[in-house]
Write a structure and sequence with these properties.
Elements (H helix, E strand, L loop, with lengths): L5 E5 L3 H12 L3 E5 L3 H4 L8 E2 L3 H5 L4 E4 L4 H11 L8 E4 L5 H13 L3 E4 L2 E2 L2 H5 L3 E6 L5 H11 E8 L6 H30 L3 H8 L7 H11 L10 H17 L5 H18 L23
Helix pairs in contact: 4-5, 8-10, 8-11, 8-12, 11-12
């Protein structure tokens, strides 16, 4: 197989669209599908072939890359694509699907003679657009050379976690990483909310911790999105973060661990979504601290 591949991208949201663009820029033939075609249409300007059905996207593809909302969505779309899947094609499954769903997706891959890679990514809109994601991947060593050009096009680094994608070792590491991201983001929002409630300038807090062990670039980056009213376009949306938080809680529960912070974060994110902030950046969970969803951070 040459380095110039035919790649199918199923799902062109924040992450999938950026990945499709970078694959096309790397010289691959890219066919993309999205449930709402209008959201995928801008990719045509970057040389991506936008198609109407999952089957049309995967026909003859060397590599199928899925970046959909969750595990059930990925399975449903692959079932739609099934008649056109080529036996022996590689499936790079990058949806954050959860541990149980990974097993179901791997079973589908076996049934359709696909080479399955559990390959979620770390990063948000900006690193995705820059091709600077970190790919967490598990899959057979014999098939890695075939997918390396795809992983290299979308990411700056690939971390191999195991040799059997069905075991979900990459997804497990992704859930651990996301548990920290979600907790840190929730804490950032609460710092702003408490500052506002107590009449404290949040910058006084930032100056207090600057340069010390409590300082964190991520804290300042996320709070700036609220303070500067830059919550859209989202780097990582509230609704998606809420879904991931629930997957983290379920993973803990299924393995005998109670994750109170993740559970509370999921509730905050869901509350913010109900207030109308679902498509904004995940730090918009800040608004869940207030009964009035219209409350702003102008005075924070």
């Amino acid at each position: 197989m040459t380095d110039n591949l035919t790649v199918s991208v199923l799902g062109t949201g924040i992450m999938g669209a950026a990945m499709a663009r970078n694959l096309a820029r790397a010289g691959h033939t890219v066919r993309a599908w999205n449930r709402t075609r209008a959201k995928a249409e801008p990719l045509a300007a970057d040389g991506v072939h936008v198609v109407d059905t999952p089957a049309a996207a995967v026909e003859g593809a060397d590599v199928v890359l899925t970046m959909l909302y969750d595990g059930p969505a990925a399975l449903d779309v692959m079932r739609e694509a099934a008649p056109a899947l080529r036996a022996g094609a590689a499936w790079v499954q990058s949806t954050t699907a959860g541990i149980e769903a990974v097993g179901e997706l791997a079973a589908f891959a076996r049934a359709h003679h696909l080479v399955f890679f559990d390959a979620p990514v770390l990063g948000t809109r900006q690193p995705a657009e820059a091709g600077q994601l970190t790919v967490l991947a598990a899959g057979p060593p014999a098939g890695r050379d075939a997918v390396a050009p795809v992983l290299d096009a979308v990411g700056a680094r690939t971390v191999w976690t195991g040799e059997d994608g069905a075991e979900g070792s990459a997804t497990r590491l992704k859930l651990v990483a996301n548990s920290w991201v979600i907790a840190a983001t929730a804490a950032a929002g609460e710092v702003l909310a408490l500052s506002q409630a107590l009449g404290v300038d949040p910058h006084a807090f930032f100056e207090l911790i600057e340069g010390g062990p409590l300082d964190m670039g991520y804290l300042k980056a996320k709070t700036a999105l609220v303070l500067d009213d830059r919550l859209s376009p989202a780097q990582f949306a509230v609704t998606t973060a809420a879904k991931d938080a629930r997957l983290i809680v379920e993973a803990g529960r299924g393995n005998g661990v109670r994750l109170d912070v993740a559970a509370a974060s999921a509730e905050r994110l869901e509350r913010a979504a109900a207030q109308g902030h679902g498509d904004e950046d995940m730090v918009a969970a800040y608004f869940a601290s207030f009964d009035d969803s219209a409350r702003s951070a102008d005075d924070a």
